[in-house]
Amino acid sequence: MIGFLQGLLAPYYLYIKLIHVLAMAVWVASTAVGYAFYLVPVFKAWRRNPRDPELITLRNWVMERFDHGVIYEHLAFPTIVITGPLLWIAGGWDLSAGWFLLKLLIVITIFVPMEIVDFYVSHFGGSKAHLRAQGDPQRYEQGMHRHWWFFLLTSAPVVIFVVLILFLAITKPF
What share of the chain is helix, strand, coil (3-state, %, to 5)? Predict the structure, then answer.
C-alpha cells in the first residue's frame, strides 16, 4: 500500500512540499505580529491596571480581533498535518528516519493538543465574541483570563519547538 501511494505521490513531491512549507509559514507567522505588538502590550497594561475601563475595553477589542485573525493559522495547521505524512510517503522515507519521527512526536504530543485548545478558545465555546453575545460578563471575563493563561503557557514551547522542527526538517540530522 505504501509503495503504491509513494508511486502515486512521488511526482508531486515538490508541490506537496511547497504547500507544506507555505502552510507552515502561515501557521508560524500569521499570529506573531498581532501577538507580539498588540496582545502582549495591551495585556501587560491591563494586568498593571486591571480595573481601568479603557484598558479593559482595549483588551476585549484586541482579543476579539485576534480570535478572528487566527483563522488563517487554524486553516494552515490542518494543511500541515495532512501534507506532512504525504511528504513522508512521497519522499520514500521509512521508520528509520529519526528526524521525521521526532518531528512527528513533537507535532502529535505538543502541537495537536495545543491547537485543539487554541481552536476551542478562539472559535468555539471559548470565543470571546460568542461569550460576549451570550450576555454573561462573568463567563466572558473567565474566557479572557483562560485565553491569556493559554498564551502564557504556550508561547515559549511554540518558539522552541517550531525552531526544532525547522532544524530537523532542513538538516535531517539522523
Answer: 85, 0, 15
Mean pLDDT within 115-139: 89
Q: What is the mean pLDDT of the chain?
A: 92
Give the mean model confidence (pLDDT) for residues 151-166: 92
pTM of the model: 0.83
- Separation in Å, CA 167 to CA 12, 87, 95, 112: 23, 17, 19, 19
Which DSSP string do the residues of 149-174 spell out, in sequence order?
HHHHHHHHHHHHHHHHHHHHHHH---
Residue with cell 494552515: 76
The continuous run of DSSP H or E covering 72 comes out as: helix 71-90
**Count of beta carbons in the 10 Å neighbourhood of residue 96:** 8
